[in-house]
Amino acid sequence: MFSKKSTNVINLISAISVVGVAIATMALVVTLSVFNGFHDLVATLFTTFDPQLQVVPTQGKTAPADDPILTEIRQLPEIDVATETVEDQALAIYKGKQAMVMIKGVDDNFSELTHIKEILYGDGEFSLRAANLQYGTVGIRLAQTLGMTADWNDFLHIYAPKREGQLDMMDPTDGFVEDSLISPGVVFMVKQGRYDKNYILTSVSFARSIFDQQGMLSSLEMRVKPGSNLDAVKAKAQKIAGEKYKVKDRYEQQEDTFRIMKIEKFIAYIFLTFILIVACFNIIGSLSMLIIDKKDDVVTLRNLGATDKQITQIFLFEGRMISALGAIIGILLGLLLCWLQQTYGLVHLGESEGSFIINAYPVSVHPQDIILVFITVLAAGWLAVWYPVRYFARKLGVRS
């Protein structure tokens, strides 16, 4: 591959072929690593709010809180904290401003279940109720929508449709259950629009009252004891739950989000693979000129006893060497760029610092992606050279 040819342009085209494959390979490594970085970033953001395990009914929105199945699950020796939740949509009105919100009622041990205290902002503290007063902790973007501060000083009115009875069109307000919440002096910020724009945390008793769900729950949320195997506990709980309930881990709780990210990553991989295939076509030009250049050598090899198949394999092997060399160089350059991005944050998300959750594009290198890229490059190189080599070999009288 590196020997001097009768025409120097052949070596130049071979070098260009290696560079083209290397650049396409580098792009694959970097792009897939950036998608991995966003995936890992989103996963860390969810862990501050979502429970480790969540048990939800497979049919309907709620289930009896005293179901023996749920009681058996929460009494598993590996379960450290279990809290009942009731969650549904409602209308929130504050000083004339209104928004559709998601009311999530939780037990008093919710702060032990999640890291909610780590994402609170304000001078107060996380609290659900005091005597007959019901507190509501609002997402920071919802607070902005409703014109609130962290320590809002008026009642937040909550309206939920009645579950039974007919709506009186003469008095539409009669078809709603109304109650109010006051501020605990804090708001929360998960840095995810789904929560920050829509959610209000309050006591499970308030949620059961306004949604008429006495004795019911939307989900049973749990945290396992330190040192326990989460997958094993999940499997054990699912065995108890049977087909009546679904036990979800954090990734399954955000299944739609992570599915979209996987689809985006796959589409990026497909597009870059097409670019890689186009880059591999440079190898065809290099090999075709090499075959013509080595016409006399082919005759010599044949006279020395080489078969046509062996001669064809020589050219095929060189084409694969070009793609393999490009793959190795591209992967090394891609890993170098990923390391530089991780260490120095060369490519920023925005011009002004603090505009986003992080300042630079996140990068996370997964070994399985590197293996996938290497196999893809070799496969694309093999496909790119197989037919052209056989075609030009036949033109020169080499029967493969």
Notes on the protein architecture:
This protein is of the alpha+beta class. The chain has helices spanning 8-46, 68-74, 110-113, 140-145, 193-196, 204-210, 230-241, 250-253, 255-293, 295-303, 308-344, 367-395; strands at residues 53-57, 63-64, 79-94, 97-106, 120-122, 129-130, 133-134, 137-139, 156-161, 176-181, 186-188, 199-203, 216-217, 219-224, 245-248. Helix 1 runs antiparallel to helix 12, helix 9 crosses helix 11 (308-344) and helix 9 runs parallel beside helix 12 (367-395). The longest helix has 39 residues, at 8-46. The model has no long low-confidence stretch (mean pLDDT 88).
Major pleated sheet: 11 strands, mixed
Radius of gyration: 31 Å
Round the mean pLDDT to the nearest integer and report it.
88
Q: What is the overall silhouette?
A: elongated
